[in-house]
Amino acid sequence: xxxxxxxxxxxxxxxxxxxxxxxxxxxxxxxxxxxxxxxxxxxxxxxxxxxxxxxxxxxxxxxxxxxxxxxxxxxxxxxxxxxxxxxxxxxxxxxxxxxxx
Length: 101
What we know:
Pfam families: zf-LITAF-like (PF10601). By secondary structure, the chain is of the alpha+beta class. The chain has helices at about 1-20, 55-65, 65-70, and strands at about 35, 40-45, 45-50, 80-85, 90-95. It has a 3-stranded antiparallel β-sheet with strand order 3-4-5. Strands 1-2 form a two-stranded antiparallel sheet. The termini are far apart.
């Protein structure tokens, strides 16, 4: 009977962890605390930035003014897509598209 109650306690702790930490980071632009199911630990995400459609759209629009202005969107993180990774196991835990501002 005590073994069964021990299993119940583990399930309660596990469910409390899942509610305390986010498990998906879609739509979030900055590093965030989350629970990684692969590592079974809470972590702070690592973000990698990549050029998005928004980056290239702004580049084309600004190139009509001058070519130098067309390079500005490549320097702005707001226009870039963001992919959240677990810093330990490198599993993707979230994705955010770049914004058109």
